[in-house]
Amino acid sequence: MPHPARPTVTLREVAAAAGVSVATASRVLGGSARTVSAENARKVLEAASELRYTADVAARAMRRKSDSIALVADDLTTPSIAQVVAAMERQARTVDAFVTVSAAGGDTRRQLETVRTVCAFRPRALVITSSWTATTAYGARLAEELHAYERRGGRVVIYGDMDAPFDAIGVDDRGSARLMGAHLAATGHRRIAILAGTRERTFAAARTTGFLEGLLGGGVDVRDIRVIDCPVNRAGGYAVTSRLIEESPGEFDALMAVNDTIAVGALSACRAAGVDVPGRLSVTGFDDIPLAADVTPRLTTVALPFAEIGERSIRLALTVAGRPDRPGVRQTVTGRLVVRQSSKVI
To answer: Which of 183, 242, 188, 238 is nearest to 213 (CA)?
Structure first.
């Protein structure tokens, strides 16, 4: 049975969602020469994207590129992406541009639809915080969409894995995580549980590999390392740590989490169970989100330069594109070890 057609979204509905007049929405989407404030333009473009104002309507309405730089992110709720977005906005303002933000929620189909919609409004550049494999059917469709946008004069920058032939900024998760593994091994930790997140998260897999390399290189026996999957959030860290404390009390002398959010959940579980950190158990994270320095005890972690990543993304997005068939520019940032009170020397 065919699916019913999606109702057409009107310009009036976009204006209402953005909290502006129909005339203002028309100027933004119609490419009018009359000036519209950056804030109102941002609201209109974001509302149009959220309502899926159809690409055909957008194509008829727009006559020139906007001054927007569109960000399509997997998840806007994480503290790390908040830092990236803030830095992008600051950098964009230096060239009289502004940043619009859309979230795909980790849904590949929604991400592809969002990219199509956003590109229809002809932003100056598009930044995607995502990982995909170009050889998959989804990856091939997304790459095709992005190539078409570049052929129309747009710029694409990927923040994340660098499988596709676009300019990209990535984090050396594996090498950065190796620093933490080596540190725990050097400080006498020999029985380790790695809270590894979920396997489909490529950053989590890379960090887990780096942890293992650092630990093994520092003399830890592989038989004394346990890798445990868990949801990549505070609740996941809390649940898996509570289970470990209940089922295997005293088995480990350190918990290594693939991000700070999981580590904060682990700290909460230790506190609830009366397990002293770091007296009985060291806990470490990764990212160095603002909360890492505020929890008790303050979290040992790997700090990533999220502000630098945001600024670099905008600078790269605003450079003049080269030949369409040129290899993409690759930039990599590395984390640094930050030792605080949640770990100890044994």
So the answer is: 183
Backbone angles phi, psi at 140, to 5 degrees: -65, -40
Task: Write out pLDDT tens, residues 310-343.
Answer: 999 999 998 865 444 455 788 899 999 999 999 9
Beta strand spans in the chain (E): 68-73, 98-103, 125-129, 156-159, 167-171, 192-195, 225-228, 254-257, 282-284, 301-303, 330-333, 336-338
**Amino acid identity at 21:** S
Which run of H or E residues covers position 116? helix 108-120
Closest listed residue to residue 72, CA positions, set 100, 41, 92: 100
pTM of the model: 0.77
Q: Which of 115, 122, 167 is nearest to 141 (CA)?
A: 115
CA 108 to chain CA centroid, nearest Å? 14
Phi-psi group of 318: left, alpha or beta (phi > 0 → left; psi -120 to 50 → alpha; rest → beta): alpha
Residues contacting 320, CB < 8 A, separation 6+: none
* 339's tokens: 């030792």
The residue type at 222: V
pLDDT in tens, 189-217: 999 999 999 887 888 999 999 999 999 99
The number of beta carbons lying within 10 Å of the beta carbon of residue 107 is 12
